[in-house]
Amino acid sequence: MEPENLTRVSEFVLLGISEKPELQPLLFGLFLSMYLITVLGNLLIILAVSSDSHLHTPMYFFLSNLSFVDICFTSTTVPKMLVNIQTQSKVITYGECITQMYFFILFAELDNFLLTVMAYDRFVAICHPLHYTVIMHPQLCGLLLLLSWIMSALISLLNSLMALRLSFCADLQIPHFFCELNQMIQLACSNTFLNNMVIYFVAALVGGSSLTGILYSYSKIVSCICAMPSAQGKYKAFSTCASHLLVVSLFYLTSLGVYLSSPATHNAHSSATASVLYTVVTPMLNPFIYSLRNKDIKGALKRSFGMAV
Known about the structure:
Elements: E1 11-14, H1 24-51, H2 58-75, H3 78-87, E2 91-93, H4 94-127, H5 132-135, H6 138-164, E3 173-174, H7 181-187, H8 193-227, H9 231-259, H10 268-291, H11 295-305
Parallel strand pairs: 1-3
Antiparallel strand pairs: 1-2
Helix pairs in contact: 1-2, 1-3, 1-10, 1-11, 2-4, 2-10, 4-6, 4-8, 4-9, 6-8, 9-10
């Protein structure tokens, strides 16, 4: 593409999930409800953990941080979408788009790292219960959290800086409800080979390492559970990691399902719809998964509010 055919970008147009006017009130009500449930549910988890000294353990420390990250993760995309629907404006400035993309990648990577750390925590708790408090001491937990933030920030910064070098033509319509990196790359008129290589390299290195760590931890956990002599012991051990395993499955299956699907099997709008699963639905379900069968969380909330939960 010749340089004179490129344009200085000032704004993009987010086409959203659907362009049908009759569906906009329904989408607004649906996403507003899911957003409020997500924020309220995760805030309750944070409140329960912070207010009850019995929950000041590594597992709940990481869970409360995961809840905070889920609130931030959803808040990077849904509020802007709601504003666009309410104002009937689909415009997002270039600066807002890059900023949204940076924080979206940041909190997505944090979700990834925290789920990996939580898998390691469950591995230590079940396979090395006598050494659990020695291994998972507060300093290590703080260090793991700090490293997760640093790694996520660096990955997000790298992808954002790579996006800044892109040049765009006249078509600035993003067929999504937020500034998704892959969609922006597809709109670019400049050479995107380096951008794609960075995405694939980071996905293979970080995503592959995290998934390998989780699978390894759970393979050891399964071996330890099978070696337990009593059925009650097996049930108790499995129940402590069942919620985390379900959340991991939801996060990875929905996100991988979107990004690994062949472009020939779905169009951009269906990809945007599928993205709702891991950007909105999964963060909304996490508090329910972790609290419905968790007596500690329900007990902490009961004590906090002075009533049955």
